[in-house]
Design a protein that fits this description.
single chain; alpha+beta; five-stranded antiparallel beta sheet; 23 strands; 30% strand
């Protein structure tokens, strides 16, 4: 088999982690399972300290293959605000296998760069102590985690036909539908596409928070997008973003960090998408052939800040997302999960319970809404 092309086979966003009482860790092993959609001969890993304010020392990095091989990599020091890509390492893997990436943090480490993600393919663990090279983590020292720290992207040297489909957005996309989409692509025989998630819970297109209460809600679109479009072998991106711009503002009398002045107009949201996302792609020669699909915003009836004005904005913005000629197409997630008689609501069984995030069944429906043609867009 001839492997000549680097393609991202797994990817995540990097944001500011939730600012709890403890923001440091020491003598801890992180372990992340990674489904491999492609066969290949070499791997390279990107680590991010984009949102950190101190250097991070990854004392040990070990890749464990499905057949039990352990491939140690050089330790990495990531300066604050930076990302690093490892040297490529020889690592024969087969499509459909799961590898594990283990990271040991020996020193006191600021855990300020990572993202919370969920889904059937997103199951991390951490253990107290150095177990980076262990076959299994000790049960009594190990817990599950959905926080993915520092590990940002994995590229594989693979066949020319393989390519990456990027899912960009907020908490809706940080949750399960990209994992279900990856499973669907594999199940349906599309073995030349990877699903790369670039999503941060709470993030907005136009604004970001600088207070520690909401810093985990992430960087604004203009800051995030250029960083998160650095995806080897990308052929298309689905952008499902904007609901937080609509639902967050409540006035400083209710929340000092959420003034009414943050509330955009629909026209400002449209202009933001055009100038921040579409123009960025069209103005960069290396992205000129990327297909850009919009993703409609989901129902919010019953959410704690729901009102008719916000619903009217959502409906108007969705209509623009469906019809704008700026996009190569639209993935109508709203249609996939809404109630047919009361379209402002989730369909029965599709509400997670908070009236904003879908249920797992609804996330599967969202994955089914993505046209299969996106799996077979020619690689660029």
């Amino acid at each position: 088999m001839l492997y000549t092309k680097w393609v991202a086979c797994w990817g995540n966003a990097t944001s500011i982690t939730d600012r709890k009482e403890a923001v440091y860790a020491k003598d801890i092993t992180l372990r992340y399972p990674i489904f491999m959609p492609f066969s290949g001969s070499k791997l390279r890993l990107r680590f991010s300290n984009l949102t950190g304010t101190e250097p991070v020392n990854l004392s040990k990095i070990v890749i464990a293959t499905a057949d039990g091989r352990k491939i140690p990599m050089k330790s990495q020091i990531i300066e604050p605000g930076r990302e690093v890509t490892t040297e490529e390492v020889a690592c024969e893997v087969n499509a459909g296998e799961t590898i594990e990436v283990s990271i040991y943090l020996a020193d006191c480490t600021q855990m300020n760069a990572g993202t919370l993600i969920t889904g059937p393919l997103s199951k991390g663990k951490y253990a107290y102590g150095d177990f980076a090279e262990a076959d299994t983590l000790p049960l009594d020292l190990t817990r599950n985690t959905n926080w993915f720290y520092f590990l940002n992207t994995i590229d594989i040297l693979t066949e020319e036909k393989n390519h990456a489909l990027v899912c960009y957005g907020d908490s809706i996309t940080a949750q399960s539908w990209p994992d279900y989409l990856a499973q669907r692509a594999w199940r349906d025989g599309y073995h030349d596409v990877s699903i790369i998630r670039r999503a941060v819970s709470g993030t907005r297109i136009l604004r970001q928070y600088d207070c520690i209460t909401y810093q985990a809600y992430g960087l604004k679109g203009a800051t995030r997008f250029p960083i998160e479009m650095d995806v080897a072998g990308m052929s298309a991106v689905i952008i499902q973003h904007g609901i937080n711009d609509i639902i967050h503002p409540v006035g400083t009398d209710v929340n000092p960090f959420r003034p009414w002045s943050d509330m955009p107009t629909v026209e400002q949201l449209e202009k933001g998408v055009e100038e921040i996302y579409i123009d960025y792609i069209r103005q960069h020669a290396d992205l000129a052939n990327i297909k850009v699909y919009s993703g409609t915003l989901l129902p919010i009836y019953g959410w704690r800040t729901y009102n008719e004005m916000r619903e009217e904005m959502r409906v108007a913005f969705n209509e623009w997302l469906r019809t704008s000629k700026l996009f190569d197409g639209c993935v109508d997630f709203d249609r996939a999960v809404r109630d047919t008689k009361n379209p402002e609501r989730f369909a029965q069984g599709y509400d997670s319970g908070d009236h904003l995030h879908p249920s797992e069944t609804a996330y599967e429906a969202m994955a089914m809404e993505v046209p299969s043609s996106l799996f077979s867009i020619a690689a660029v």
